[in-house]
Structures are given as structure tokens and as C-alpha cells.
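#struct-pred
JK: can someone run the complex with PBG? inputs below
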Amino acid sequence: MSFPDIRPRRLRRTPAIRRLVEETRVAPSELILPLFLKEGITEPRPISSLPGVVQHTRESLLKAAHEAVSAGVGGLMLYGVPDNANKDETGSAGLDPEGILNVGLRDLRAELGDDTVIMGDVCVDEFTTHGHCGVLAADGSVDNDATLEIYARMAVAQAEAGAHMVGPSGMMDGQVGVIRKALDAAGHQDIGILAYSAKYAGAFYGPFREAVESTLQGDRRQYQQDPPNLRDALREVDLDVAEGADIVMIKPALPYLDVIAAIRERVAVPVAAYQVSGEYAMVEAAAANGWLDRERVIMESLTSIKRAGAQIILTYWAVEAAQLLRERY
Ligand code: PBG
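RT: done, C-alpha cells with the ligand placed:
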């Protein structure tokens, strides 16, 4: 019987030793909280498939934003949920300065100034009657170039409302370049672009569709990426960086850690990942059944996403995770 000379277990023996050699730590300032603002409601509304997440009123949005800032959360990503009456074929309520998303961005900026990073989703799916991320061509497909024009105006409207950064999430070809040009032309050279660069057409966005009351029929496979493909993500990220993306994002997060890792190696801009609604819902559902230790799974998943290479993480657990991190370190 021979005994090992080298014993990796030594570094795992006590909590203090483990803390000393811990390689990956998530910081609250690296978390971004997605928030939903619903038009015309007087009380926040729970979202059944996202327990703990609500559609906000204008008032409750500000309260939640303050809570996030106090917890040390690094940024806020706002989604608008318009009245059905304000949806149309082209999503014009997304461009309207009085549309719910721009109203919310203005409120947040007026309330919080530069205390946190305020971001808006640049995509028309919440604002269109058909629920697609762009305008439709005669054959029912999403018309890429006609949509670009809308995104450009939407981004400028968000900059004017007070967003520090805009987040184009519609996966139209050329969207980052067009938005960069439009922002610059309107004098918004300082407004950044968080590009949803590698966004997969998977099944993990289900609860989000409830959150924004999506009317989508069918799916987004003609514009979002096919889950088996990694190289397509590299291509998208290269294009977005060349077009002026300040931060690139991969979405979803946990099922695509290999994509995060590959992109981290490839580009010099910060890399973000979006722990999407389905990732959140799975853990909440299992925890509600007593099948998982909720807090430990939350922290483990965030740590894994960071270890893979994402230094910024969008997560519906941002506030709670920030609080847990502050207790831990
Ligand atoms: C598009 C958008 C979506 C999400 C973020 N931005 C929906 C989609 O692509 O269908 C999903 C985020 C999540 O599931 O948490 N505006």
C-alpha cells in the first residue's frame, strides 16, 4: 500500500483555508437586476412562473430600484409591459417618449441619477401585437432591415429618457452598428451598448413571456441562435465588437457555460451572461418542493457563471444574492 505525497485535501480542511484559496468570488456590483414595469396598474402584480418577481407600478419600481442600489447591485435592466391597447404591428409604443419603458427609464434616472447603471431593453417584442422582436415582412418573417431603423430610434429615445446603456436583444443582423451610429448622430456618444450578442432560441424564456404578457405565436428560431452551435456565437460576438458593442452578453447562462468561456478568451470587452427566467424558475420550483437548498444553488450557479468567464451577470436574484454575498465576505 502506498500513500500519496501530495494531498489536495489539505486546502479544503477548514472554512478559513477554503476561503483563503477561493478562486472565484461574485461581487454585488457585478450583478444586474432585470425589472418589469407594467402600464396602468396600481398594485404590483406577481408573475406566477417567476415567484418573487413582479410587474411593477411606477411607484413600486422606484422602491425596488432603491432596494437594489442599497444592496450594492451594479445595474438595472428595465423592460416595459404596455397596455394591450398600445401594442401595434411595429411596436411604436417602444419609441414614444411617453411609452411605458421610456417613462420608467426617466423615473429611474430622475430618482437615482448616476448611483447605478440604468439600462433599457431595445427590442419590440413587448410592444408588438404579434410578439416578434421586429416588424413583419409580407411573408410573415421578421424583416431585418426595416427593424433596424426602429431599433435605432428606440435606442435614441431611451438615451433621451436617461438610460446610461442600451441593451439590443432582438438578434437582428447589424443592430449594434446601426444603434451606435444613431446614438452618435444624436449626440449620445457616451451612451453604451450592452449587446445581447449570443442569444439562443431555446426553451428557457418561458416565464419571461408571462412577465411581459407576450403574444408570440410560434418561435424565434429564424433570428435567435440554434442551441447546438458555438461557432455561430463567436461570429456574432466578433461582429458586435466590430460594430461597437461595449459589453457582450451570452444568454441563457448555465446551459451555455462553454460559450461564455470561449467568448471570454476571444474578446477584450467585458463579458456578461443572462441567467434567464427559466433558470430562475427551475430552482424556485425545486426549492419550493424541498428538493434543493435554494440559497446554496443560487450562489453556486452564479459562481459557476462567473468562473466560466462572465464578469457581469443579469439575474432575478440580484438583490438577494448581493445581500448573501455581503454576509459572506
Ligand atoms: C426580448 C427578451 C427576451 C428575454 C430578454 N429580452 C425574450 C425572448 O427573447 O423571447 C428573456 C429573458 C428571460 O427569459 O429571463 N425582449
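RT: quick notes.
Strands lie at 31-38, 45-46, 54-56, 75-81, 117-122, 165-168, 192-199, 247-251, 271-275, 312-315.
The longest strand covers residues 31-38.
JK: thanks, will look after standup
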